[in-house]
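Onboarding guide, step 5: your first structure request.
Type a short instruction followed by the sequence, for example:

Predict the 3D structure of this protein.
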Amino acid sequence: MTDLADTTHERILVAARREFDAGRSPSLAEVATAAGVSRATVHRVVGSRGDLLRLLDVEPDRDTAGRVLAAAADVVGEVGLARASMDGIADRAAVSRATVYRLFPGKEALMRGLIRAYSPLDAVVQTVTRMAGRPPEEVVPELVLAAHRAASPHPGVLRAILFEGTSAGPEAEAAMAEAAGTTLRAVGGYLAAQMAAGRLRPMHPLLALQALAGPVVFHILQRPLIERLPGIDLDLDPEVAVTEIAHHWLRAMRTEAP
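The system replies with structure tokens like these:
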């Protein structure tokens, strides 16, 4: 019986390796077909698809990484960063715990991926870097739109980053501090340069950024709740709303009299 099990195990691995070598990313059902066994047999012999990838020393595909990040965003939105576990994320993504750790070896790596995918920080840095030579009237509305588009699909991630940044454990805190520092330096540097050029009122760049980001973040976080409240009609496109906030900030910050 042991020899038969070993033979089946080897046949499954050989078939799976052949599929990957051909440039395909097979499901367990496709591996079963290639090996001439049932899918139940594949599950019994090698476990999950993540276990199979580990046995073959094959990197998980991008779809799996995206699924893990989407699951992490959902879990963080529901229970917060501190209570989010790798096991819970693996269960939500329908992958093994080993697959999660293979993609993201620790909570710090997972948080970096989550911040890049679902927080507005990366989008804001990319926008201000791309438009660094443009005036505030062009840059600031694009900044708030980039932040809104990145954060609004998963507002729970933004809420967790803002309110759990120092309570989610040292690994998550390190990832968030790195991303926040990059954002503050990029946007703060742009605002300081515009103040030095006389295009914006002089003040501490961090305070200027907080005055802009605060209302935008509050709108993103509160809008889902407001839209469910009876008797309140928020008949305003979200992107129009955050752009209007940006224009109010620009009127307050411009150096010449309105």
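Each response can be followed by summary notes, for example: The chain has two domains: 19-34+46-105, 118-253.
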